Amino acid sequence: MTNTSSGTPLSLEIAAKTDPGILRDLNEDSIATVNDLGLLVLADGMGGYQSGDVASSLTTQIIVEGLTAELQGKPNNGSDLAALVENVIKKANETIYLEGQQRAQRVHNSQSQAMGSTLALLLFRDGQATMAHVGDSRIYRLRDKRLELMTHDHSLLQEQIDQGILNSEAAARSHNRHLVTRGLGLHAEVEVTLDECEALPGDIYLVCSDGLNDMVDNADIELVLNSLQANLPLAASQLVMIANDNGGDDNISVILAKVRPHTTPDAKKNGLFAWLFGR
Questions:
Q1: Which of 37, 55, 58, 204 could form a disulfide with 117 if both were Cys (CB 3.0 to 4.6 A apart)?
Q2: Domains of the chain
């Protein structure tokens, strides 16, 4: 992974949608986008833990506030962007962990009030996309009409696949799909996976909770994004609808971001001139 200064955000078109799904009354997902920062954040309060909705909401709130304080009005201060992101995520983990411990003490039960959340984050600056994730929420990229998974799940199921214990067909039927091996708030320290890639004009990035990718095949996600890339809000709604049509057994959250062509001041002036004079 290369180091990137804090830079300036890319121009993005962003659409987002979250839905409780068919089988659940409570939506434990939390999403946040800050277009001025080029920031997308998705957190999934983990099933099997109490107060998952609180954990996910704290995750997005602390990360957005922390990165806004670090980056707003600071187009280039020479900071390592990945390090900034990691530090803010670790602060969120500490806050959630301590909150969970305090809740446990109030009810004298160290297990019943554990709080946990997954995280998938994208930050676009200076032609680069910085990615961070913990757990099994995912980041995909559509480039040249091809969908690519950019993250690697932190889950028991993924470990079994990596070790050759399960093939893809057996994995699809596994009951271990929701057992994550990393999460914010579960321990005093958290390991964050960070990566960077070049963000090109026309790229479409998808951040989603497992309520989408468990219900919708990658091929169908690719088809929707290729077909509806000119209308991102409709694409987001369509993905959620398909997940619900296929069972909707979990909360479903989708954030889409399309990288707009880079526009220089001269290009803007030339574009205005052409519009005025019909060129």
A1: 55
A2: 12-277 (3.60.40.10)
